[in-house]
Design brief:
With 153 residues, the chain is mostly helical. Helices cover 54% and strands 0% of the residues.
Length: 153
């Protein structure tokens, strides 16, 4: 009886490990993975396009091309920033502080966005897909800077 239980537990562990290895569990997917670019385009146009472009071009706010590298390893913080920028400032993150210092005096605070994490994934899938998903093709000379570029300026 005990051998059968151990064998059953081992099979379950092996099955879960295999699923995780194959990337089947959406629980562990990052914010830049698994979104739907088609849905994201509609969400972007409804919530973001009045201030942002998906290129490096600056409209009223930074262009979003390269967003993944600028926010690398900070998925939860990016979600917080999009949903409630002023609350995200309270984290003390250096990149957020640099964004606030650069953009808020010129253009004011970004509005809180009433979008879910799943909708943010869709928007980011659209941004990441770039012009192939119907985005802007303009090459900008006024691009959003990384934290290192801001510090060097």
């Amino acid at each position: 009886m005990m051998k059968r239980m151990k064998s059953s537990v081992k099979r379950r562990i092996a099955a879960v490990t295999t699923l995780l290895f194959l990337g089947i569990s959406p629980v562990f997917a990052g914010i830049f993975e698994g979104g739907d670019a088609t849905k994201g385009e509609a969400l972007f146009k409804a919530n973001c396009a009045s201030c942002h472009k998906i290129s490096e071009e600056v409209l009223a706010a930074p262009g979003l091309q390269g967003l993944e590298s600028r926010w690398k390893g900070k998925d939860a913080l990016l979600v917080k920033w999009i949903q409630n920028p002023q609350a995200a400032v309270g984290t003390g993150d250096a990149y957020i502080k640099a964004l606030v210092d650069k953009w808020v005096p010129k253009n004011g605070w970004m509005q809180n966005q009433a979008v879910t994490e799943a909708e943010i994934k869709d928007i980011l899938a659209y941004v990441k897909a770039g012009p192939a998903a119907g985005g802007a093709t303009t090459t900008a000379t006024n691009k959003c800077l990384t934290l290192d570029e801001i510090k060097a300026a």
